[in-house]
Amino acid sequence: MISTLLQVALGGAIGASARYLAGVAAIRLLGPGFPWATVTVNIAGSFLMGAFVVLAAHRGLTHMSPLIMTGLLGGFTTFSAFSLDAVTLYERGAMAQAAGYVAGSVILSIAGLFAGMAVARALFA
C-alpha cells in the first residue's frame, strides 16, 4: 500500500509540474485570454491515457497504472480519467449512462465551481 501511494505521489508531482510548465509555455507563446494550456493538457492527457491503457493491457504493464494513470496523468489532468470513464461506459454499450456522465459531469462541475466561488465570495468579501 505504501509503495503504491509513493508511486501515485511521484507521478502526481511530475504530472502537476508538467501541467504548470505547459501553462507557462502557453502564455509565453500565445498570450493570455484563452485557456490554451488547459485545452492542450486535457487533450494530450486523454490521448496518453488511452494509449497507456492499450499498451498496459497488451504488454502486461498494468502494475504501472498507479504511477502513470493515477499519478502522472492524474496530476497532469484529471480530464484524462474523466475521458477514460466516459469511453469505458460507451464501449460497454451504456450509451445513455455515458451521455449522462459526460453532460452531468460538465454541467455539475461548472455549477460546483460557481457555487464554490459564491460561497467564498460571501465569506471573504
Task: Tell me the layout of helices and strands.
Layout: H1 2-30, H2 36-59, H3 65-76, H4 79-91, H5 95-124
Helix pairs in contact: 1-2, 1-3, 2-3, 2-4, 4-5
Distance between the termini: 43 Å
Largest sheet: none
Number of strands: 0
Class inferred from helices and paired strands: mainly alpha
Portion in helices: over 70%
Question: Can you offer a commentary on this structure?
Answer:
The chain is an all-alpha fold and 125 residues long. The chain starts with a helix and ends with a helix. The protein is built from five helices and no strands. The chain has two domains: 2-78; 93-125. The protein is globular and about 50 Å long.
Q: What key phrases describe this protein's structure?
A:
125 residues, 2 domains, 0% strand
Entry summary:
By secondary structure, the chain is mostly helical. 86% of the residues lie in helices and 0% in strands. Helix 1 packs parallel to helix 3 (65-76).
